[in-house]
Amino acid sequence: MASCTYTVPDKNASGDNLYGSRICYQPFIDYAWNTYGFSGNKNYWDDGFGWHDACNTSKPLARAFNGCWLLTYSADDYLNDSWSSPILNWGRRYVRNNIDDLRSKCGDGSAIATSFSGFFVNDRVELYLGFFYSTDVPGRAEVLLHEARHQGGKSHNANFPSGSVFGSGGGADSSWGYNGAWMYGALYLWWFYAAGARTTPAMRQRARQRGNLVIDNAFATHPGFSI
Amino acid sequence: MRKFDTRGDTPTMDTDDELKVEAVVHPFSFREYGDQPEVTALIVEAVNRMSGAGEPAEEDYRVCIDRLCRKTKLVSGIIQAEYFDMPEDAYLDRWALVMLAVELEDSRSLGFLEEILASAIPEEKSKDPHSFTTVGEEVMIRTTAIEGLERMAANGNEKAVKLLLHNIGHETFSIRRAATQALLAIGGEDMREKLASELPKRHHNLLKIHRTDVREAEQAEGGLFLKNQDDAETPAPNEDRSGKASAG
């Protein structure tokens, strides 16, 4: 068992304390716990991670719920999550359909999330401290979609372009049309910027900057557009 | 096809981790502005509301920005002092201060935005930049500064245009791409010709990148045209701001 410590501001731009009043609502917590892969994993969400304190946005569980809230309610017509609607609508459906085992861990300070899948592997997504404390709420939704795409069977298939902020070597997607994890995340942020509801212009701008960073740096062939 | 979970919450034999969280009120010091508690409190509130959620989030944020705009000179000074006083790894908080400066659209912030763009990007600190990249965080701070220049340039600020032109030669691709597109957005076809003459040939690919409406982009395949059958129970969002609830 690893032990970790984190110092977290009560008020800052991550958005967590304002999301807190949204997620602190029993019907939503029941819904999120049972549909986004938390259920069955109490062990991974207690011991300081928030299971006994689900509304406390200083704790990882509430911060994960915040990402789930954004995924659930950012489309103006949030009850429509048909596949023929924009990813802003069905992104949450894709996440809950593909991630059925979501765990929190300290991590080693490198990755913020990892998807495990394959033969003789317990399919799961692990979230580490960086997910809860270094990533804003739209960014957490992006990470969940990214990892859900991996759980859905789509791996990265190319090397990062020269000079990419994401490093070198494998881990990129060959193109936008490959429909990989980077495309899912960037497209979600793009829609959030263009049509995100129940948020602020600043968060939409944050989503735009992050979406453009992904478009510029995560595809072996630049898609030729930007947000 | 949805995966249905059959596990209960029975404690398992797996080892799990333990976390201790220490909370602080906010990340700012306001070292030089202790005599301005009302304004600094308003800045904290604006940064806080910047990422609000729910139906009133945008209005609450706008009201806060409007109040800050009444004291632009003082607020700009505090933002700048605070930005340079923050630890390098406070990426999100540094970004929030730049975003606040962008929202104020104050020409006194030009030097601040210029300094940010001129500052060298520190080398990557993350052991796994695929997952979290400190260089990426630094780039987003700078592309947000470009957004500030674009807004001022669109309002006729010539110095902002000059700064954007200077940054089309930035060493980082995303920053020169953002500067190029900001200029194209405010200058149209005349600007395209100017950029074609100013950009070195090796960077002419920037002119092939187009700012696009997401509705015109290739969409994700998802599970197109399948009927949704598993969402009947989604609760309406809670607009009550003082709820209590528990997990599990």
Report the radius of gyration of chain B as a whole number of Å. 23 Å
Query: Structural class, from secondary structure content of chain A?
Result: alpha+beta
Largest interface: A-B, 126 and 105 residues
Mean pLDDT of chain A: 91
| Approximate helicity band of chain A | 40-55%
* Shape descriptor of chain A: globular
Distance between the termini of chain B: 24 Å
Q: Tally the helices of chain A.
A: 9
Shape summary of chain B: globular
With strands numbered from the N-terminus, the spatial order across the biggest sheet of chain A is: 2-4-3
Count the helices of chain B. How many?
A: 8
Q: Helix/strand-derived class of chain B? A: mainly alpha
What can you see in these coordinates?
The complex is a heterodimer of chains A (227) and B (248). Chain A is of the alpha+beta class and 227 residues long. Chain A has one domain. Chain A is 44% helix and 11% strand. Chain A has nine helices and seven strands, in the order βαααααβββααββααβ. In chain A, the strands form two sheets. A three-stranded mixed beta sheet of chain A has the order 2-4-3. A two-stranded antiparallel sheet of chain A has the order 5-6. In chain A, α1 crosses α4 and α7 runs antiparallel to α8. The N and C termini of chain A lie far apart (43 Å). In chain A, 64% of the residues are buried. Among the domains of chain B are: 72 residues, no CATH class; 79 residues, no CATH class. In chain B, α3 runs antiparallel to α4, α4 packs parallel to α6 and α6 crosses α8. The interface between A and B is large, with 126 and 105 residues.
